[in-house]
């Protein structure tokens, strides 16, 4: 018979997984308490929740959300990084953290409802942020308009110069 604590955890995990844009399944075994605390602080800066949970409870919560294909990633010690806003946020934090530490190892990822292998982590971590993408879009949209304005201005300036020269020639 499941205890009340586990039932509550499954309900919480089910709710978190249903709202998440991305979930990163990590192998945290080997990190000390100080490193895990540092990692949690980095995650909290980008509104990502880092939670250690039992694999069986994660599996039940995933089943409640009709997420399939997670079994290969739910073995050993598992901590999940859950992002509700930016699905690439946890990847950037993990990438930066892994520069100083070898762990945590990324076992698997749920990215926008799709289950991906941990090998896809590097590709996702290198994606630009939403703000960077918007800046690139704005730049690419404004560039043709700027060039058009400069071209029109140049033509008008040239026309003005020709008329001025013609006036000077006629007056001589």
Secondary-structure blueprint:
Layout: H1 4-19, E1 22-27, H2 33-45, E2 48-52, H3 55-64, E3 79-83, H4 89-100, E4 105-111, E5 114-117, H5 121-125, H6 130-171
Antiparallel strand pairs: 1-3, 1-4, 2-3, 4-5
Query: Mind summarizing the main beta sheet?
Result: 5 strands, antiparallel
The CATH class assignment of the largest domain is Alpha Beta
Number of E-state strands = 5
Low-confidence stretches: none
Mean pLDDT: 87
Query: What structural class is derived from the secondary structure elements?
Result: alpha+beta
Features:
172 residues; Alpha-Beta Plaits; 2 domains; five-stranded antiparallel β-sheet; 57% helix
Please explain how this structure is put together.
It is built from six helices and five strands. By secondary structure, the protein is α+β, with helices and mostly antiparallel strands. It has two domains: 4-127, Ribosomal protein L10, N-terminal RNA-binding domain (Alpha-Beta Plaits), CATH 3.30.70.1730; 129-172. β4 and β5 (114-117) form a beta hairpin.
Structure, briefly:
By secondary structure, this protein is α+β, with helices and mostly antiparallel strands. The chain is 57% helix and 16% strand.
């Amino acid at each position: 018979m499941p205890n009340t604590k586990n039932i509550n955890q499954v309900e919480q995990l089910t709710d978190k997984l249903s709202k998440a844009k991305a979930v990163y399944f990590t192998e945290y075994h080997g990190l000390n308490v100080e490193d895990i605390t540092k990692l949690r602080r980095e995650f909290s800066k980008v509104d990502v929740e880092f939670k250690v949970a039992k694999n069986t409870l994660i599996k039940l919560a995933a089943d409640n959300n009709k997420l399939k294909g997670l079994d290969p990633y739910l073995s050993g010690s598992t901590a999940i990084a859950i992002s509700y806003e930016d699905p690439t946020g946890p990847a950037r934090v993990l990438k930066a953290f892994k520069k100083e530490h070898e762990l945590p190892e990324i076992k698997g990822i749920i990215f926008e409802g799709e289950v991906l292998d941990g090998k896809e982590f590097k590709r996702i971590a290198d994606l630009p942020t939403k703000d960077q993408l918007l800046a690139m879009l704005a730049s690419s949209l404004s560039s043709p308009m700027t060039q058009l304005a400069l071209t029109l201005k140049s033509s008008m300036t040239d026309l003005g110069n020709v008329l001025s020269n013609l006036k000077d020639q006629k007056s001589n």
